[in-house]
Amino acid sequence: MFLPLRQEIAHLDTNALREAAKRDALGALVLSCKVLFALCKSARSESPQGARVLEVMASLLGAQAGQQPQVSPVDMMVAEMKGMADIFFRMQASCYNKCIASVKEEKLSVGEMSCVDRCVNKFMDVHSKVGAELQAFQAQQAQAPASTE
Predict the structure, then answer these.
(1) What is the C-alpha separation between 139 and 66, in angstroms, rounded?
(2) Distance from the Cα of residue 65 to its chain's centroid
(3) Which of the four CATH numbers 1.10.10.60, 3.40.1000.70, 3.40.50.1970, 1.10.287.810 does domain 73-148 have?
(4) Distance from the Cα of residue 108 to its chain's centroid
(5) How does pLDDT run across 55-95, given as a tens digit for each residue?
């Protein structure tokens, strides 16, 4: 389902991206693009490739060149909730596949419970560390252009 969309994104073809988004009905993609566009815009990427990505994202969102699309707080909350739900489902699937060999009994065994507990803790630790690193990187990127001006 997503392979044609990924191939079209790699080529940065605006019309193909717009059509793929309509075809696959990815409302979450639009919200994610809005948030990503705002983050990229705040980082003030000066590379030609970064400028092209911003241009494509802006055109996907219906913004004119050089104009940042408006992202409402509700849209950002919905995108965040969808992201958290996605993380929960990925964690659940990952830990279930690693820890639950078969469902033979009504309750989890002691080994399965401890495995699930460790798996969830590791997943959440990694998620929070990656989030902290991403925030630190974004803060560093936001300060870098401000210090050069």
Answers:
(1) 23
(2) 24
(3) 1.10.287.810
(4) 33
(5) 555 555 555 545 555 667 777 788 888 888 888 899 999 99
